[in-house]
Amino acid sequence: MISEDKILRFIGLAMRAGKVASGYDMTVSTIANGQAKLLIISKDISKNTLGKLLHRIETDGTDAPDAYSFSEARKLGDAIGKPDRAILAITDEGFAGKLSTMLEEYDDTKETD
Question: Radius of gyration (Cα) for the chain, nearest Å?
């Protein structure tokens, strides 16, 4: 089984490689210009922010990349060396593919702290 920490470390690696857009404005811009290959949305994202994101994607008429609900904003921010981040966009096919596989294998119901 893939652990939350392993996925967070991989997200950090993607960030160091320059393949992560974070925060609302940067993520929306990345989706709009077609660079976003995968979205990671924190499980504790506010309903307002999520609603704005979904509305923006619908009204822009852009194809939204696959999205996963994962972890918490604090942990996502820590993984990329930033303050809390509720939304991340992965901009590289290779990183997106690997993360997709990891997130599919991740089962947070079995996570122990």
Answer: 13
CB 24 within 8 A of CB 49: yes
Amino acid identity, residue 73? A
Tens of pLDDT, residue by residue over 49-101, are 999 999 988 888 778 899 999 999 999 999 999 999 999 999 999 999 999 99
Quick check: pTM over 0.70? yes
User: Where do we find the tokens 């309903």?
Assistant: 47
Nearest to 47 by CA among 103, 90, 88, 86: 86
Sorted by where each starts, the structural domains of the chain and their CATH numbers stand as 4-105 (3.30.1330.30)
Q: How far apart are CA 71 and CA 35, in angstroms?
A: 23
